[in-house]
Amino acid sequence: MLKVGVLGAGHLGKIHLRLLNQSDKYELVGFYDPDEINAKKVAAEFGYSHYENINNLIDTVDVVDIVTPTLSHFDCAKKSIEKGRHIFIEKPITNTLEEAEELLELSKKHGVKGQVGHVERFNPAFLAVKDKIENPMFIETHRLAEFNPRGTDVPVVLDLMIHDIDAILSVVPSEVEKINASGVSVISQSPDIANARIQFKNGCVANLTSSRISLKNMRKSRFFQRDAYISVDFLEKKVEVVKMKDAPENPGDFDMILQNAEGEKKQIYFENPEIDVNNAILDELETFADAINNDTTPIVSLEQGTNALRVALQIIESFKD
Q1: Which residue has the higher pLDDT, 240 or 265?
Q2: What pLDDT score was predicted for residue 272?
Q3: Residue 150 — very low, low, confident or very high, per pLDDT cuts 50/70/90?
Q4: Do 72 and 99 form a contact (C-beta atoms < 8 A)?
């Protein structure tokens, strides 16, 4: 079992602590939180070992799980990597691209692995259809959330949209060519609503919308590709796969047939992929343990987390144009 320590015992940090404590792939050593009152409260309520010194905790473990505010990600990760510790770091990987690139170089220098907490990659709905998404040419995403002061220290792009940016980059086999975006601040000092249009070199276009001041929650993505439409509801954990194939010469009474202007006939049919219920956060943590034990590349590597941050920051920069 890998010895693991958690940095940060806020809302998400407590979830990580609970899951790591029940995992058979980790031995939870303890946690560090700079808020002494909160740290003692968490330790007393759940019985986790509380370290008063961050370096003492890092020295004791094999893996450091960083669940702190984004602004402190870099310092926590750098301390851990320089001590030869593998790191799991919540999204976004860091606050700046320069910090992320430095962590990449440090991880290579010290021979440690890192994974970024883009949890939607482990969403059972996305897992059910990811292999069916082949060279999509148009993608549309909507990620809307009711207002919550937690997370408003960063633009909505880094808070919410980055989930969809990472998922899109994982299925589009092409580099980004052009980005146009707009963002509006309504309640926060940083944009609360954003829309971005990402154009890839292979011609694929992705249209992303995110809001953290909506009246209802929504997390939906739609992928359009040759002869197929795939819809993923990350919130409800549902999928819809609609495909087309050449129509049979003698279609059945209940076959759905479309004919285009050229006279070509296509049959529409539906697939219902099986969705395996899982705990996405536990899965991302445990697959990271597997990557360490088997010396394989983590599912969401530091490099991929850096790429997602790069695109997110380009979107934010595009607000100024």
Answers
A1: 240
A2: 87
A3: low
A4: no
Q: What is the pTM of this model?
A: 0.92
**16 φ, ψ to 5°?**
-60, -45
Place of tokens 């220098």: 109
Residue 207's domain comprises 124-278+311-318
Residues 63 and 141 in one domain: no
Q: Are residues 134 and 272 in the same domain?
A: yes
- Is 60 in a helix, a strand, or coil? helix
Provide the domain count of the chain: 2
CA distance 114 to 214: 34
Please tell me the distance from the alpha carbon of residue 265 to that of residue 206, in angstroms, as a whole number: 28
What angle in degrees, to the nearest 10, is found between the helix axes of 97-110 and 302-318?
Answer: 170
Express each pLDDT in 11-28 by its tens digit. 999 999 999 999 999 999
Residues in a beta bridge with 193 = 184, 211
Q: How far apart are CA 127 and CA 299, in angstroms?
A: 12
Decide if pLDDT at 116 tops 70: yes
Alpha-carbon gap, residue 223 to 140, rounded angstroms:
7
d(CA 280, CA 271): 24
Answer whether residue 118 is part of any domain: no
Pull the structure tokens for residue 153: 């220290």
